[in-house]
Amino acid sequence: MNRPVPVVPTLDLIAAASGELTPTQRRIAEAALAEPTLLAFGTVSDLAVRVGTSRPSIVRFATRLGFTGYTDLQEHVRGDLSKRLSRPSERIRSDKDPGVSARAAINEAMASVFDAARADRIGALVTPLVKGRTIWVLSGETSQAGAHALHSGLSMLRPGVRRLDEHSYGTELSDAARGDTAVVIDFPRYRRQVTLAARVLAESGVTVVAITDSPLSPLVELADTWSQIKVPAVGPFDSSVPIVAMSELLVAQVARELHDVATDRIDRIEALWDQTETFV
Questions:
Q1: In terms of DSSP bridges, do strands 225-228 and 233-234 run parallel, antiparallel, or are they unpaired?
Q2: Dihedral sign of CA atoms 273, 275, 278, 279 in order
Q3: Cα 130 from Cα 255, distance rounded (Å)
Q4: Is residue 99 part of a domain?
Q5: Which tens digits make up the pLDDT trace of 33-70?
Q6: 150 and 197 share a domain?
Q7: Residue 66's CB: how many other CB atoms inside 10 A?
């Protein structure tokens, strides 16, 4: 049977075909990613009803991804689903050898980070961080470590860097305006308030830089530029390692771009730390 190699995640297959998907096929893809068990165990009719389309459209979606038909796609998704369980409790039940699986997953995720930060790609992400009047940083729950690393690093290099917290969206977002830049970080399961905040920023004329997992992420349609990285499960929860690494690479590149300005600012901060006896 001629189907893609089973180790390739369904998400990656959809991402690779994203530019060729029709609007109907995008709706099918979104439903498949949001509710993978429906695709894995439901019938063609079940998925067609869920999306509001026809059975032939579902079959055409499967062939668009390179499968011979719906059954072939279903077999692939079942294998993928066993490796990508979204609920922490399910991950705990299924995790038999966390050390070995975590090492392989993090290695693969880090490869995606370095690919996203290639010299021919990182400029589009960094330029808005250098030129933005104010830099807003917001993230979903599982991305907070990366958002903290980005906010902390950028604050040392330039003024006007602000971290958005969900409880203060109302007051904070009122200050956002054209000429600002927002870095929005989120991954499945996408947090509704983060997407809504990103939409408000985009509609205010803020340049949105998104770091997420897929062309079908709700952040992509709101972003002026975006980057795709993988975030694996380590034990019951998503790993923060690739998000933190991506943030550190962005900070390092901003430091190179600002160079003298960043150096002078860090020297002033260090002098103030000495003056106020910040460190023991």
A1: unpaired
A2: positive
A3: 9
A4: no
A5: 777 767 877 789 988 998 999 999 999 999 998 888 89
A6: yes
A7: 16
**232 in Cβ contact with 106 (< 8 Å):** yes
Domain containing 262: what range?
A: 105-275
Same domain, 115 and 67: no
Q: State pLDDT tens for residues 109-129.
A: 999 999 999 999 999 999 999
Strand (E) or helix (H) holding 184: strand 181-185
Q: CB 202: neighbour CB atoms within 10 A? A: 19
Q: Is pLDDT of 3 > 50? A: no
DSSP 174: T
Amino acid at 176: A
DSSP 8: S
Q: Which residues of 119-152 are buried (b: 16+ CB within 10 A; e: fewer)?
A: eeebeebbbbbbebebbbbbbbebbbbbbbbbbe
Asked whether residue 93 is domain-assigned, the answer is no
C-alpha–C-alpha distance, residues 248 and 45, integer Å: 46
d(Cα 96, Cα 249) in Å, to the nearest integer?
33
Tokens 């009122």 sit at which residue? 174
Q: Are residues 64 and 159 in the same domain?
A: no
- Distance of alpha carbon 242 from alpha carbon 106, whole angstroms: 7
The CA–CA distances, whole Å, from 153 to 145, 150, 157, 219, 253 equal 12, 5, 7, 23, 11
Instruction: Classify residue 136: in a domain, yes or no.
Output: yes
Each residue's pLDDT tens digit, 193-229 = 999 999 999 999 999 999 998 776 789 889 999 999 9
pTM of the model: 0.70
Q: How many domains does the chain have?
A: 2
